[in-house]
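Run log, item B.
One chain of 467 residues. Sequence copied directly from the ordering sheet:
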Amino acid sequence: MGMRKRRSNRSGRPPLVSPGRPPVAGREERRWFWAGIAAGLSSEDAALEVGVPQAVGTRWFRKAGGMPPAMFEGSAKPLSGRYLSLAEREELAILHAQGTGIREMARRVGRSASTISRELRRNATTRSGGLDYRATVAQWHAERATRRPKPAKLAGNVALRTYVQDRLAGVVVTLGGAAVAGPTVSWKGRWHGPRQDRRWASAWSPEQIAHRLRLDFPDDETMRISHEAIYQSLYVQGRGALRRELTACLRTGRALRVPRARTRGRGKSFIVPEIMISERPAEAADRAVPGHWEGDLILGLDSSAIGTLVERTTRFTMLLHLPRMAEHGVAARLKNGPALAGHGAEAVRDGIAQTITSLPEQLRRSLTWDQGAEMSQHARLKIDTGLEVYFCDPHSPWQRGTNENTNGLLRQYFPKGTDLSAHSTDALEAVALALNTRPRRTLHWKTPAEAFDEHLRMAHMAVATTG
């Protein structure tokens, strides 16, 4: 007795080698997901936007290494209209379930009968042995059939792959050729999440490798690769060229690429446009009126710190004593707990308030700071002292040039890598006095203390006259 033939044998599709089940979302959902990632959304938020579970969005992001597949990039061409869309397949599934004939389905959808017949046969659901038609399964089969994966250039060129790997992860050697292992430095993961542990290596950047190839192999066109292709081989799983562990040799050590829009969205929540440096009065910029200050922290060993305040007109300097809390080094730091190192928002606010309120109101008009989290309580500081607080633009230390120059002078007394908590309040006052009694060229060889005293006397005279 012969074997009974299954209807699914007429699909014209070779037997599938367990491709798994259809994905939870189609091409359109994934395209919108990567559009959300490009706009700066997290993988969880982008997944919610397109209506898929957050775990699915995280899996998509990690599998792609944080890099959108070429078909979902903004420069990718839209699908040609000659292919059936998911909406058309949904309409076909309804008509097929209603028993509509092929020619009638073709007329309603606006396609040729041969296209409909081929669609119902090739992309049918054959799991049960029949030729059932479901739109999502048909769309899945169609997307699988349109894939045209190209082998990675590094996977097929052994010499090129060896060159790239040696420049990325090559051993550091002495002038005599002896290998130097170097220390193994693990990432704490406190600020940037999990990353590969650091190790010493050649650590050329992909851009350096790509451009150096042209100098080392000027006549060999096979020894060419773009830096973006190297990044893709590092980040994207399944490229079959470079191991993801080599990302530890990149400067950032990231195992996933971070979209640029996401980094731009990491602004400080306590900063609003109304308190940016662009809104600071013009009198502060031209230094004509005293009482406008610049501030910052200088950091030392074990997260010790000293606060600095510099008056813009006279260069008069005041130092803030920021001792560590008693629990520092004894108890583990709690997330969102108090800043045990002594330079948290509350400690800095209290230190500035205690120091600046010793001056008359005419000499405490404004304070310009960088966007450090230690100034997150600036609103309370303004209430306590009447001091207007302004923030510099990100990565713009020159907007506080007077303070940066003073910090450089202070490093003569507080070198980098030393424990700044060892200095008492009296010691800080002595250092401030030493700076304030140095003659300055910009003050016509007066000292900051002399220039500040003149303004201080004028402020007291104004108060006495008003009284």
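Observations after the first pass:
- The beta strands are 172-173, 179-180, 292-299, 305-311, 317-321, 366-369, 388-391.
- Residues 21-146 form one domain.
Flagged for discussion on Thursday.
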